[in-house]
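Minutes, methods subgroup
Present: GH (chair), OT, SY

1. OT presented the first of two proteins processed in the latest run. Sequence and structure tokens recorded below as shown on screen.
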Amino acid sequence: MANDKDKNKEKEEEYVRQTGSLKERLGRVKTTRWWRFGIVALIYVLWTIWMGNPLLLLGLILLADIYLTQYLPWGAWKGMKNKTLKTVMSWLDAIVYALVLVYFLFLFIGQNYQIPSSSLEKSLLTGDFLWVNKVVYGPRVPQTPLHFPLAQNTLPFFNCKSYIDKPQLDYHRLKGLRNVERMDIVVFNFPAGDTVALKMTNPDYYTLCYERGRDVVRNNKDVFGDVIYRPVDRRDNYVKRCLGLPGETLQIKNGIVYVNGKAVPQPENVQYSYYVATDGTQISDDLFDEIGVSKDDRNHALDMYGNIIPNLYVLPLTKTMVSSLKSQPWIETIERYQPDEREAMLTYPVGTDYGWTHANYGPIWIPKKGAKVDLTLENLPLYERCIKNYEGNELEVKGNQILINGQPATSYTFKMDYYWMQGDNRDNSLDSRYWGFVPEDHIVGTPAIILISFDKDHGLFNGGIRWNRIFKMPNPDKK
């Protein structure tokens, strides 16, 4: 009997909550719900001001109904008789609420990011998990708003797209604390990731087409997979160091980066590749671990026939690592690796032979918003992707004439700022030297802290956790 009375009382209370005039409904609201509504409404108003869109204030009506008036039956599941279904709905309600919070947190505040490759070693290590701050440069309003908040472009397990292509919104960035600065470590969407062959991760689609042929890539799905387009904010995330800013002229000489004629200070842990010759003694795994060379980087040099040269290694090393190896009595020579000049056709712009390599590159001018560049057939390959792919113009060459949107053009004024990004592992990094400029609308944020770090070369309980990197600042070189 008592249970029946309790159930009847719950039904009566639910009925009362869902009936009555606006005044009556507001009169029945508990003080705690008024407080909760006030806090949420204040946060929402501040967010609306930040967004700069007063129409979003209409969302306050929805919040008021959720917390106060309840014209819509938000909590109708609480009156369900089926206990199992009620429990399921309770969990579903909590999960949806959590996903909404995570969605807004990841979009406008920051998110976690894993370092997948060695391109920034030894500044950042493969296996570092970072918290990326999006507020610093100002978060982007999502250009692809309909997406699963915990996946970049592919749903795990299901191996399908984690987003719906439409609607697509125009690029808009909220006000941040500052602009991108030189020596910042920056997370950004991969610029050459607009078109992707799904079974290939390296090299990018455009380099693949140059090496194999466009028709081969598109018509051989068994090898390359489907070829798809990805919106800007759904492209893979990359992390590199910003070395060149909008409007600057950058050149690389013997691996040293110069901006406007002045050498850019090198990060403390910058790495270059070296030939390391021994007297025949093999470098032990213990010594590799001690100096910090991962298993993936423990490579022997090869002769012209592709055979291993036992006493000659090619290793990425910092100055400190070089000194450690030189102290070994059986090390004969350590010399800087020299790039193959045939690499010139694979540096940006791919397929155009300026005679540049990753160690000797440029000079190249970095586009700046509002700045005008004179266009010639010689320099057009440098800026073609910016004009066509990033800024959405039609571009073609007829004879000796350049046409932009059908009109003859001898110059072009850029709509966005662009940046030059490189890895600190200078001879082992696919960066702006291979795929060009990073447009401002691809910028995601900057790492704020290392959350945790795992060493894949060791077991979890045998040195697999790098305890000395937990909560460490990810960019000590940026003063």
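2. SY then presented the second protein from the same run.
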Amino acid sequence: MIPIIKYGTDEMKRVYGRTQLGNAEFSGAVAEIIANVRKDGDKALFDYAKKFDKADVNAENLLVTEEEIKEAYAGVDDKLIESLRRAKENILSYHAKQRDKYKNEFFKGGEKGKSTLGWIYRPLSRVGLYVPGGKASYPSTVLMTALPAVAAGVGEIVVATPNIKNPLILVACAECGVKKIYKVGGAQAIAALAYGTESVERVDLIAGPGNVFVTLAKKQVFGDVAVDMIAGPSEILVIADETADPELVAADMLSQAEHDELAASILVTTSEKLATEVQKQTTEQTNMLPRREIIEKSLINNGAIVLCDNIDEAIEVADKVAPEHLEVCTKNAHDVALRLKNAGVIFVGGYSPEPLGDYFAGPSHVLPTSGSARFSSVLSVDTFMKKTSYIAYDKDDLLAGADDIISIAESEGFGAHANTIIRRKR
């Protein structure tokens, strides 16, 4: 049974204790995989695919073919494809609006106001998306990673996934315009995307969730390639008062608990009555759900109901947890939502449940976890854009600032820097 704890007690360690990435003991194994793929390329990649995924992959069958795409479409119900397309429309529309803000800007600057400064935005040229295939299959992840990249105008989008047996993943890739789907997964796929092999061209950025090996691999290749984020297990925090429906609050908490045993589901409430009713509902509903065993372990190990005296305490708890998903089910929910500082996504009101964001509303469901929402953002068009500064100085402006530049350069011991300015003063 999910425990009820009181705000301000030592038991709050249960709520605040999540770290960004556990299982660091696997770091050495991941480093070895990356090193071998860098050294041996395709050979290491295919050997690991056979070892870990029991997949017979080689240079000839590494990429999903058009025939396999056609077979995938034939294996998916037409109504499901239509649902996928409606979700695609919402997601693409949402992110297309973000693209509008990326305008190149130029303005007058310099000491004399004769020069031009500014910035230029460009989408990344090539990105690799990882679609996991472990305890659950996530065709929705294809939509939630590929469509923001499409909206950004990325030149080429490729996907790596060990889970081509799920036809809906291939259909989702095709619907998003992904032309290359590599049949590999795990840390070896991350290494191949980051550094390239004979059959895999390296990318500029790797995005998408994965297990601990994938996450550690992303962390280790960062710097040689960009990554979207270093994500941990899924989590939800619900702020609710006496106006909330305990049946629905419990259902929303369980929607995250079923991800895996490490997922966290937390209710922060000002109502003792709601707390006890939600506790009862989580038990009753869990008994009726197909992933019961996973949910029970998640709730016992990582779940909590926090009882607060007022909404200010509830907001304080939420901001300190900085959850991946945050639901606000209170009076004046919009006002409460605007007071919150740290969350991957905020769902406002009783008719905005977390699965709406997972599949359909529009914002990406790839979100910062384990408190990293304190400094990280949701995957979006921003993830796939880069900004380049623009400087076009006039001679008079340069000479007006020359002595200052020389002074600063010489104070740092960089005579060659000063020299470039001195020579232009002659």
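Chair's summary of item 2: The chain has a mean pLDDT of 95.
Next meeting: continue with the remaining queue.
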